[in-house]
Structure formats: C-alpha cells, structure tokens
C-alpha cells in the first residue's frame, strides 16, 4: 500500500480524508482495509495501477479503536511523511483541495466550513464518496467482497449542494478581501517558505525529499507547529506532470520542470520517447519529434513540431482539434491523441491561474444563485 502514498501533495492524484474513510462501521470494524478498498476502486475508475494518494487524518485516528497493526502502520507512515496527522484535518484537507484543485475522497459534506471555503457551495466536481454496493441494494448478496456480506466498495461523484444557513455577510467580507488581493492563496505553492522559529525545518526545501505545504491562517502562510507567519524565500520551481495512456490505461508518467521544454515523439534526440508503446503500424503516424510540452508562468503549453500535425481532444466525445506548427495551452482533462490507442493527459492537479479562473466563475454563479 505505501507505493500508492506520497508525502508530496504535488505528486498526488487524490487527497484522502483518511479518518472519514477508515471509520465507517462494518462487520470488520474501522481499519486501514478500507483504504485498500478505496485504492482498488480508484485503480478501476482511472485505469491507473499506479494511482497516488495524499493522506490527511485527525491526530486522534491512531487511537480510534483501530486494530493494533493499523495503529503501528499509521505511526510508520507518519514517520515517513506519508500521512499528515492534525488537530483540524478537515480544514487542512479543504486548504489543500483549494490550493491544488485535487479531488478529495470523503463522505463528509463539510457543512460547517462553507463560510471559510465558499467554493464548497454547489461544488460538483471535486468530491468523491466511497459507498458499499449493498447500501444501495439491501439484501443483494451477489458479490462477496473482502468484507464478506458487506460487499464491494464503489466510488461516486458528489454534489456538495448549497447549505441554506450559510452566512452570506461573512462570505461577502471574504469576497471583498479576495478582491483586494489579500488572499492570494494559490501562489503559496509557487513560493518556497521558511519558519522564522529557530531550527524549525518543517517547510525547509532542503529537508528530505518533499516539502510540506504551509498552513493558511488569516490568509497568510503559517507554520503548523509554531503558528508563526512564514518567510517568503522566493519562487519555487514547479513542474507539470503528464500521464501516458495506452488503451485508456496509464502506463507511464513524466514531468515537465518549470522553464523547460520536453519534446515528445517516436524518437526525439532528448525528450520523451513514445517508442516503447508504439505498435509497428503506428510508427508512421508519429513523427520523430511530434510535439513539445513546456511549463512556464503556471501554464502548460503544447506546440506542434510534427510532419502531419498534433491532434487534441479538448472534451470527451468532441471532434479533434489539429495543431499545425502552432501552440496552445493544455488544460485539465484535455488529451493529446498520438494514435488511436495512445494519448497523453495532465495529472489531476490544477495550476494557480486555472484555480483563480475556476473559483472566480463559481463565485459569480453563487452570487447569481443567492440574489
Ligand atoms: Zn515552525
């Protein structure tokens, strides 16, 4: 299971509300076996055997009546930086969801957090709920999963709905602050941070293989441990992550570091080679240098350098768009079609520019809905 976990939220495909996922009662009681079931369901959902999760849990979770072996596992994961254990796991999850645009696996609706995180209102595309098949079909025992009669765990997208007693005046205040540019949360991921407290290395980029994302308190990056405002250490080089899909299964991933260009094709001199995935009859369709991906100023750009053009599918089922010697920004969910079988797509993370646009749209819609 640890192979599916990461301590670097920027590498993750999903955020997991671990306490919520493992605590659901059942014949086997709460336990990490529920996380196993979620991972299996995500692998099915995404056709990706290497799905990567970032776990956030309540500090009390290891003492929450879990089997002893699970408590030990959680401690090991905490030591290895593979789970964040906090007093306010819900807030942390929503903070990370806001900063990265990643989807959250949870059954919670966070009804008490709508003022602080107004983008939860009416959100339909960022929360995924695990449920047990038998919950829906009482008395159906066709499938005997690892939980015995409890049956199989499935996932579904959740409409977070609008909470009625939502405090509009506080939301309005928040909105004013945002317009004044006080809350520039999305940029937090693009900067390096340091705690002013002596010897605190919690957010140190030279410390270990991953960097913990700062907490946001009153709109300011803050140390979780010391509560101090963090010092801005300048820009942090980011990277865009790409997935290679063959027959709709993810077979490989690679990154495009900020400020660089990666050429993709049948045989680029240095770049990403599609050769291992190409069948013989496909080789003629892919140029040696087919297209170039570059990541700069928070945008991933694709530029055609091929002989016959690069095909893009901008939405499921939509006709293909062709680039011929031209470039455009590649968005989340947009696919580069190399052959009928082979496509490239971005990982789940959204970039700050995209989050700004998305939240701005949501905010406008909410206002129209409530007025
Ligand atoms: Zn600190």
From TrEMBL:
It holds the Pfam family FHA. Gene3D superfamilies: 2.60.200.20. Residues 262-313 form the FHA domain. The keyword Zinc does not apply. InterPro entries: FHA_dom, SMAD_FHA_dom_sf. Keywords: Phosphoprotein. SUPFAM superfamilies: SMAD/FHA domain (SSF49879). This is FHA domain-containing protein.
């Amino acid at each position: 299971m640890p192979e599916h976990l990461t301590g670097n939220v920027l590498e993750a495909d999903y955020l997991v509300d671990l306490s919520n996922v493992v605590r659901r009662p059942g014949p086997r009681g709460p336990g990490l076996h529920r996380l196993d079931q979620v991972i299996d369901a995500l692998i099915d959902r995404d056709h990706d055997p290497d799905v990567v999760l970032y776990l956030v849990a309540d500090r009390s979770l290891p003492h929450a009546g879990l089997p002893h072996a699970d408590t030990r596992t959680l401690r090991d994961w905490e030591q290895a930086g593979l789970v964040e254990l906090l007093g306010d796991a819900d807030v942390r999850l929503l903070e990370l969801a806001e900063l990265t645009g990643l989807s959250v696996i949870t059954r919670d609706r966070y009804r008490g957090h709508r003022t602080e995180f107004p983008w939860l209102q009416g959100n339909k595309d960022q929360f995924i709920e695990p449920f047990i098949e038998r919950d829906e079909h009482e008395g159906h025992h066709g499938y005997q999963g690892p939980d015995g009669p409890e049956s199989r765990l499935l996932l579904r997208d959740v409409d977070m709905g609008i909470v009625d007693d939502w405090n509009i005046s506080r939301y309005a205040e928040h909105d004013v602050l945002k317009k004044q540019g006080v809350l520039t949360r999305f940029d937090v991921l693009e900067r390096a941070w340091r705690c002013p407290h002596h010897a605190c290395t919690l957010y140190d980029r030279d410390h270990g293989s991953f960097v913990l994302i700062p907490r946001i308190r009153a709109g300011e990056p803050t140390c979780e441990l010391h509560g101090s405002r963090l010092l801005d250490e300048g820009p942090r080089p980011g990277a865009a992550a790409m997935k290679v899909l063959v027959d709709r299964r993810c077979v490989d991933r690679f990154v495009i570091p900020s400020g660089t260009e990666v050429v993709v094709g049948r045989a680029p001199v240095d770049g990403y080679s599609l050769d291992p995935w190409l069948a013989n009859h496909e080789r003629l369709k892919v140029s040696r240098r087919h297209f170039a991906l570059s990541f700069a100023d928070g945008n991933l750009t694709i530029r055609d350098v091929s002989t016959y053009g690069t095909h893009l599918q901008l939405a499921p089922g939509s006709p293909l768009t062709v680039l011929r010697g031209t470039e455009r920004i590649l968005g989340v969910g947009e696919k580069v079609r190399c052959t009928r079988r082979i496509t490239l797509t971005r990982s789940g993370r959204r970039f700050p520019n995209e989050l700004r646009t998305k939240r701005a749209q949501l905010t406008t819609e909410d206002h129209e809905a409530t007025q």
